Amino acid sequence: MAKFKTRQGLIIEDLKKYVSEWISDKPDAEVYIGCDSQERDRQIDYAVSICIYDPGKGGHVIDRRTSHPLAKSINNRLWEEVNMSVAVADELKDLNIKIVIHCDYNSKETELSNQLYDSGIGYAKAMGYEAAGKPNAFAATYCADKAVR
Hints:
By secondary structure, the chain is α/β, with parallel strands linked by helices. The protein has one domain (5-148): Nucleotidyltransferase, domain 5. It is 33% helix and 34% strand. It is built from four helices and six strands. It has helices at residues 15-23, 74-92, 117-126, 138-148; strands at 5-6, 30-40, 43-54, 58-69, 98-106, 130-134. Strand 2 and strand 3 (43-54) form a beta hairpin. Helix 2 (74-92) runs parallel beside helix 3. It is globular, with a radius of gyration of 15 Å.
């Protein structure tokens, strides 16, 4: 599987160790995980971003990009985004840190992704994580969006 990288291109060999070391002297640190996708060249590119935030001091973003065959539908593609975010959160859950899943689902009923808003956020919460959708999902809508483009 593809590895996470810093925005400067450093490959992270051990994700759990990397995040643990980054937060070791930051007792108020929080982790936000989001995913976005982009269809291109008969495949779907996904980017999962981990935003490690130290309140009042700033943050750090790492990303992982993967490519998959075309999804059967937009709903399948969007559901895979929350699945990927939860899977990464599961890798980090025993670090004893606040983890929030950011779903790239819009709270506006006029938007296509709204169809999965309640179920996607509900799924992340059922898996034991706090969760948020747009407009409060910066890890997905800004960080992962930038990484997937």
